[in-house]
Design brief:
Layout: E1 10-14, H1 20-29, E2 36-40, H2 42-51, E3 56-60, H3 61-66, E4 71-81, E5 88-92, E6 103-107, H4 112-124, E7 130-134, H5 138-144, E8 147-151, H6 152-161, E9 168-171, H7 172-180, E10 184-192, H8 193-198, H9 200-218, H10 221-228, H11 236-245, H12 252-267
Parallel strand pairs: 1-2, 6-7, 6-8
Antiparallel strand pairs: 3-10, 4-10, 5-8, 5-9
Helix pairs in contact: 1-9, 4-7, 10-11
């Protein structure tokens, strides 16, 4: 890539623990020198990519589905899990089937996790709660609600804190796997179609850099966890367990999970149907 900072692709990066392994690999490989990296929360990165303020970046699955006509997926890159994910949770004071008509707080940083929780409650548990948005802080949520949807670091903390408080924790990715038999994908990496058409070489380089980063990190997860434990409120063993629960791939089974989620989202009117034909991946 060009050394001119103006020419470097604008690439997003999620400031959550679930993307720390990707960032670790980018630092180790030197790929950060070749991009303008913008670190932020998922909701802000979603908005920046859709608005054209980023060229390439992670985007929540729901927001990708809502803007699939403007974006192309980067192959074999995602954040999800094929079973428990540990950091996308519905924390409740009562069994889920008893949440019908009850207040449920939706963490303001979540898109895909929130919609997944709504799907599960409606279609699997027959519950139609009264939903409201609020900051993703469990104690504040449960002052006004019987349950709350949390993602990312607050959800991971709640996983370990909630049982001692007598709260039920439902891992939403695990519930999806039990419900559909498919992996759950929460975020994908996408490129704007206009940028992919204008700069296919840069897209290829960024895609390769992210894949190298992921593969490098997956071979060093214990080292990554040990380093992260120095500044995170989790010990190294907890972080290593978490990182190993994550799936950063986007193969055939993951794409099947994406398409099933897209079908259900379209049925609810939350996103346009994902085309059965036509390219959804960038040519890299």
């Amino acid at each position: 890539m060009s050394d001119d900072a103006v020419q470097r692709p604008r690439v997003g990066h999620i400031q959550f623990l679930n993307c720390l392994p990707i960032y670790w690999g980018l630092m180790r490989s030197g790929a950060l020198l070749d991009v303008d990296l913008y670190k932020d929360t998922p909701d802000r990165l979603n908005a920046a990519l859709v608005a054209g303020d980023l060229d390439i970046g992670p985007i929540s699955l729901v927001e990708y589905l809502r803007h699939a006509d403007e974006l192309l997926l980067l192959p074999n890159l995602a954040v999800g899990s094929d079973g428990p994910v540990l950091s996308v949770n519905l924390v409740s004071t009562r069994p889920l089937a008893e949440l019908d008509g009850r207040p449920v707080a939706l963490g303001s940083t979540s898109r895909t996790g929130v919609l997944l929780a709504q799907m599960l409650l409606a279609d699997r548990y027959g519950a139609d709660p009264e939903y409201f948005r609020c900051p993703p802080e469990l104690n504040q949520m449960l002052l006004e609600a019987d349950a709350g949807v949390l993602i990312g670091d607050p959800a991971l903390r709640a996983l370990y804190e909630a049982p001692a408080l007598g709260l039920e924790v439902t891992d939403l990715a695990e519930a999806w796997k039990e419900w559909t038999g498919l992996p759950m994908v929460f975020a994908v990496w996408a490129v704007r179609k206009d940028f992919a058409a204008a700069q296919p070489g840069m897209v290829k380089e960024v895609h390769e850099a992210f894949q190298r980063s992921r593969d490098l990190c997956l071979g060093e997860l214990d080292e990554v966890a040990g380093a992260a434990a120095r500044w995170e409120p989790f010990d190294a063993e907890t972080l290593a367990t978490y990182f190993r629960a994550l799936d950063f791939s986007l193969g055939e089974r993951q794409v099947a999970g994406v398409r099933e989620f897209a079908r259900r989202a379209a049925e609810r009117g939350e996103a346009p149907p994902l085309p059965a034909d036509g390219p959804i991946f960038a040519q890299v």
